[in-house]
Amino acid sequence: MHRLRWWFRGFTAVLALGLLAAACSSSRSGTASSGNATTSTSSSSSSSSKTFGTLASPCGPGSAKGATEQGVTDTAIHIGYGDDRGFAQSPGLDQEMGDAVKAMIKWCNDQGGILGRQIVGDFYDAAITQVNTVMQQACKTDFMLVGEGWALDEAAEGTRLGCNLAAVPGFTVGPDAANAPEMYQAVPNPVDYLPASPYYEAAQLFPDAVTKFDFIHTTLASATEVSYNKDEEAALAAGWKLANCGVTINYFGEPNYQPFAQKYVNCGVKLIYNNLGPGPVLFGMLQAINQAGVKPIYIMETNDYTTQMSAWNTSGIGNQIYVRDAFVPIEEAGKVKAVQDYVNAVNATGGKTSQLGQQAASNFLLWATEAKACGSNLTRQCMINNLSKVHNWTGGGLHAPADPGNNTPPQCGMLLKLTGTTWSQFFPKTIGQFDCNSKYLFKISSKNWGTTLNSQRLAMKFLSANLITPKS
Amino acid sequence: MHLFITYTIFGLVLGGVYGIAASGLVLTYNTSGIFNFAHGAEAMLGAFVYWEVRFNLHWPAPLALLVVLGGFGPLMGWLLYVGIMRGLRDTAEVTKVIVTVALMLGMLYLSDWIWNPVVPRTIVQFFGPTSNVHIFGAMVPTHELIALGVAVAIAVGLRLFFYRTRIGVVMRGAVDDAGLLQLNGHNPDRAAALSWAMGSFLAVLAGILITPVSGGALESNALTLLVLDAIAAAVFGRLRSVPRTFVGAMVLGLANNYVLAYFPSSWSWTSDFRVSLPMIVLFAVLVVLPQDRLRGATILRTRERFRVPSVRTAAIAGVCLVGAVVLLRQLMVDSDVTTFTVGLTFSIIALSLTLLTGYAGEMNLAAVSFGAIGTLVVFHNGIVGQNVGARTTLQWIVVGTVVTAVVGGIVALPALRLRGLYLGLATLAFGVFLTDMVLMDVNPHKLPLLHTKFSLFSAGAGIGSLVMPPLKIGPLDLTDGTTFLVSVAVVFAVIGVGLVALRNSSYGRRLTAMKDSPAASATLGQNLVKLKVSVFMLSAGIAGLGGILMSQALGSVTSGNFDIFLSLSLIMLTVVAGIGYVSGALFGGLLAGVGFALVVSTFNNLANNHAGLHGLYATIAHIAAVLPALIGVGVGQNPTGSVHQIVDGYRAMKDNRPVLVGGAVVEAVLYVLALVGAIGNWWFAVLTAVLIMVLPLVGQYTSPEAVRQRAAEVPLEMAGLDAPYTDELRAQLDHALGIDDVARVDRRRGVTVAAAPGVPADPTPATGPGPAAAGGASPSRRSR
Amino acid sequence: MPALEAVDITVTFGGSVALDEVHIAAEPGAVTGLIGPNGAGKTTLFNVITGLLSPTGGRVSIHGRDVTGLPPSRRARLGLARTFQRLELFTSLSVRDNIRVAGDIRNAWGRSHRINVAAEAERVIELTGLGDVAEMDVSDIPTGRARVVEVARALMTQPSVLLLDEPAAGQTERETEAFGQMLGRLADDGLAVCLVEHDMALVMQVCATIHVLDYGKQLAVGPPEQVRNDPAVIAAYLGAPA
Known about the structure:
The complex is a heterotrimer.
Chain A: H1 2-35, H2 41-45, E1 51-52, E2 55-56, E3 76-83, H3 95-110, E4 118-125, H4 131-141, E5 144-146, H5 153-162, E6 167-168, H6 175-178, E7 193-195, H7 197-205, E8 213-215, E9 217-218, H8 221-237, E10 248-249, H9 258-267, E11 271-274, H10 280-291, E12 297-300, H11 307-312, E13 321-325, H12 337-349, H13 355-374, H14 380-387, E14 412-419, E15 422-427, E16 435-436, E17 441-443
Parallel strand pairs in A: 3-4, 3-5, 5-6, 8-11, 9-10, 11-12, 12-13
Antiparallel strand pairs in A: 1-2, 7-17, 13-14, 14-15, 14-16
Chain B: H1 2-32, H2 39-56, H3 61-83, H4 93-114, E1 132-135, E2 138-141, H5 142-164, H6 166-176, H7 178-183, H8 188-213, H9 220-236, H10 242-262, H11 270-288, H12 311-331, H13 337-359, H14 367-381, E3 383-384, E4 391-392, H15 394-416, H16 420-438, E5 445-446, E6 453-454, E7 465-467, E8 472-473, E9 476-477, H17 481-503, H18 506-516, H19 518-523, H20 528-554, E10 556-558, H21 564-577, H22 582-609, H23 614-633, H24 642-652, H25 657-675, H26 681-702, H27 704-711, H28 727-737, H29 741-749, H30 779-782
Antiparallel strand pairs in B: 1-2, 3-4, 5-6, 7-10, 8-9
Chain C: E1 4-13, E2 16-26, E3 31-35, H1 42-50, E4 57-62, E5 65-66, H2 72-77, E6 80-82, H3 95-107, H4 117-128, H5 143-156, E7 161-165, H6 173-188, E8 192-196, H7 200-206, E9 209-214, E10 217-222, H8 224-229, H9 231-236
Parallel strand pairs in C: 3-8, 3-9, 6-7, 7-8
Antiparallel strand pairs in C: 1-2, 1-4, 4-5, 9-10
Helix pairs in contact in C: 3-4, 3-5, 4-5
């Protein structure tokens, strides 16, 4: 009896170690084997004329050949993608991005891949802190990164450029990632330009409220403060007036939000600009502000346009929340084909949909379109050459037109409104239409860039002679 | 004035929140001697269960409260005591800490499993989310006033309970002198069980009350971590006095709100300071607490038993380790080398725990945080070259290690005068302070005298990550993954062998003496504080070096890489593996650093990629997430660790060469099969694990003694003559000789059986309530 | 000048008085006995003398130097050593290492205190007759021998004052006899020994002076003969035949 217990306990420990060793050495194979398990030839024959929204599908059979670059073979193209879903403090973080790319890979492979080459997706969960480790893995495996979204991308930027792993990321966060070389984004968010539509729109819609606005500051500067600095610049330019209430909450939660709400009350805030994502911290803050008796207008970043936010708003506390968006909202899938195509693709592989997912999908389409153009000459150099020439991209109608080649954001936007548990387009009134104006492309002063840019607006930090630059 | 009243009231509310949480800590610590890190997690589970019945099943509030507070809360506490805590008698303080830390982590993962954290859940305030009360012009939510009222009621109630009721008085005595209580006809076991039930009740009450105060949105982490802030209040009450604890809680709550109200918000560090306030206060309280009375071995005989290998054995093992790493490298895909390297750097950090906890019996709950100090030093000074060509220099790694050691000494000094638990709490406070304040310092501020802009943890304005290039010493460039891996393995082996040599030296013997009996050590002339500071500095230095290497292996680090949870799971898994052993550090570090995270993510990926089996793989991933915590909780059953058991198994078959050689051959065959790809790496790992476990059993079965034993059962009177005298055998003998169970139970609890009834026991708090290490062996002789 | 002197020691725990103005002195070259029933305060007095417990009142001096405010380790350096009634052996170490570590600690006092630990340990093991159990785990030897290990360990620091707390409990009669002879030899070498013991035969045999404590109060002081015949002592302590 005693002996048996001894054996069992020891065994669990050793087994755990064994699992570790095995996981160490085979995590790669686990994911790699899965991506190409999709060769249903029946559907591919009929889909040669398929479209994604208004975009002709870049996918289909063909005869592209050659092991032209790491991750590219006669029959397959290895791309890396991923998100932070394994982050312990926020499980499932940004998983829609991975879900979207996975869905799009299947959508593409079902049509025959890219000119006959199947796409093999290597999924990387950076879990926030592991971003450099997964980047090192991708460096050794993949042709390019496509539609990935890692919040701490900055931490791995040096590694990425060190191995010339060109990327078409789903989003960028760090300043050196946002203006990085070897990087093109479907909807760029460079450090030196801001899509300023919401500030002008709000000034027009809520002329009184914008005269007393403030932010919800947090202790995690990299998450909220860096972009607030830019928002402030653009908002002031649009005629907003800052009421400095002095609210900075702990990014990881406060035991009581009432004192902070009181600070807003004391300074008479009428409009609150927020980029803190949905979750207990934001919800606690909103509830406290409501209880304290003020009813400000909220203008929020697109990351708050989620079902988590709408599901929370059963009490209607969030009925004055407006979210800026450059994408056609998922709610309008019935009216806009590109959105419907995206939703269909994700539903087919059992994933989650959201605006972030749309973003990743658009980047995949951008990448796939240019990969097709490269054909048998599928090299990073060719991709970078082609991507640098794309100046009007809408992802088949998923979003407002943007300029990936010049790395400038859209000059258009819309405001969504939360009412109860539903989101709807608020401004402009016509569903699916954006409000566009050239002054919405707002130039940020260099002190708020967070990095230094060269004359080609590339972040200097990781520049080197070995980088691949566009050649015509 | 209006402002002042408002923030005073909110400060009191926050103090009440801390007070409720801290009172439960004090309650269970006083009655069972276990500092319950899982207290916040219990509150969290209670809040979730309440949400489930009240807002999901829509029970009426009174019924929901009755069931959750009256049923679930006490039952959970009682089960915890009966199932886990009761088994922690006779274990070292670190074991007790580890078990509750494991419980905390386990409950956290469990709740994430049951209640998907992505779904928003709200506990609505009592009397609704808009009900307010006006006091002197300040508007306060009704619910928060209720919370404050309940907090005060708990403070008064507990005080009355402890001093005015019979069972309360019994509880107070349960830790100090369980034996005395028993002599007077009380049952300390029952008192402890009751206190755990009450503690859990308080936790659940806190969860239900506090959640709406913090906005009502349920979140597993926040409530669980509330216990960290509450620790400061509890220490203010010296972990003993409930009223003092409440005073501490109120001071904390008020200070927090006054900082918020009156500190200029333009100071970039104001908010970080406010968030760190509980930890700063905790530290300050530790500094002013009077020195503890020296205790003797409070436990008759701790169940942890560690064998000490010789330096020669250790050196051979070190060489074997490096060899094994080189061989394993051949099986790995290139991209996994980094992962393995990171795991080994965690093992180096774990070595600091082997020295500190395993050898010297002291605690560091923030080992990984000390790595951040070394990393900061190297980042700011030790990098040469640019971008891809950047390297770190050896001399600055040495400086970083030394600086970490010095900082370690400064941090530990105030707590070293106190009992071991306080050192654990001080390190915890330091770790949290570091992540909340130092590692949050990402915006450059002007330094007053130097006229330069500087921020501690930043690679540029607002970017909270540091890029750490690899080391280069002359021709040795660690940019190459394999070189780095092998180098880290060598560093681990060298430090490991060094530690074994240290343990076998006079310094090591003095450490062991201090661990086994501080009182005897001091009366022999050992300056305990000096010895503790020296060993803590040495240990912090090792953690610093490990942290620097970890940062380099990762390539870049953020504050998340030094999270307190990492430190906690590191020490937990190291204890599980065997904290008295260098090999325990190896396995504990590998598991904490990468092991379980990898297993979880592997299964999550599988679930992600196989829609059909999604449920199965996701479940396995959840189990894998909870598993380390379960193993940690089980450490109370086996405080010496798994490595010890395995080593014991192999020690027994030292002379059984055929089996050993056979095992080696089988393993070599497995390796070759894996190398040529005939079997997958998973199979290689699983089969290796099975082989390691089965071999001692085979050895035991085929050993000459076993064969002889099977031939003839040993008669009882011959027992112990030609075979080791085991506990099992002793129990058998006791049974046969009719030595009754009570006597044996008493001996284990350390009760002076000999003290004649009616005669007051010698008041000897200094030596603690335990008879001699071997004194219990002949109780009859002393009672003449 | 006595090697050890504790004057007017008073200790109170909460409301109860554990020691009430107790006075004790130990002369070099003699064994001083300290007897009294359980709970009389003998171990508490030892704890006060060694610095593990701060007295409420009174002072302790070693070789004429006031050590009342000094920590235990400093007192040890002045030549004080003790054993514990509730054994405080280093359970992770072997018998030999238990003894050696005391020498290690002494060596860490400073350069002038250096001894050859291995040789000295060998000498002490021989002196105390622990040779047969020297390599055993300290928790595997009988109580009586374990108490001798405590004595041996204390001797390793080469003390001038040795406090022994019930060293003979758990010893067989033969062991006790040998132990008594060893105490005599130690005293002859000039050591001041202070002995707490229930074994009256041993106490009467080796002690030059005996102090009697009862419920924290000093009942009597004097040579064995005198104490044996003291009516107060007989009433309080020896009332029941020993």
